[in-house]
Amino acid sequence: MTRKRSVYFGPSQSVAVGLVAVTPLLVAYELTILFSEERTQATAGLLLRRLFALLGPGGFLIFNAALAIGFLLALQAKHDRAKTRRFQLYPMIVLEGIAYGGLLGPLLIGILGRLAPMAAISDVGHSLALGAGAAVYEEVLFRLVLIGGGCAVLKGARGIDRTVSGAILVVVSSALFSLFHHVGPGAEAFEVRVALYRFVAGLVLGALYVMRGLGVTVYSHAAYNAFVLLG
After folding, report:
1. Which pLDDT score, from 0 to 100, does residue 54 have?
2. How many whole angstroms separate alpha carbon 203 and alpha carbon 199?
3. What is the mean pLDDT of residues 91-108?
């Protein structure tokens, strides 16, 4: 039993595996934005683009090159020395993420109650792609960079134990994740209950990232977004 668990649960937590696993969601989102008449984009993705735009006219090219290089490095990373074929990990990551995403909604409702229903959606496909892109970019920004990167920095600079720094950064990233949806042009008006709802969701996703890695967390977030849109 221990060996079977290590073949999947250990390697599936790898950042390299996670980046490869979520690439189909990212590609679907980018192609939808490219060919869609609607210009709505995932806010986190737009923020990352704007940060790269500070580098000058070639910033957008650098952004896309960084995505491509990250994918190639992840694909080449020797993340799994187990005898099980590496590609068997990815369907399991997707299914595990979808399962957690299906549980996230009832969990939040059980803790905080239901929010007001969403407005009618005119283009379901575009909205689903937008939800997938938001899941990828938000998890990369708030979980991979803030939690994963933050733990590495605190460990190296201050020698702070990863368990302690991880717990602190999960809370901090969840607060920023919630506020992020209410800041900037076109953002939602601030409502305490909605912000609290997202904060708790951030705590769950942050804990899931720490325990299960980027790939499972992204698919959980994307599945939750899809269930909300279709529900």
Report:
1. 60
2. 6
3. 95
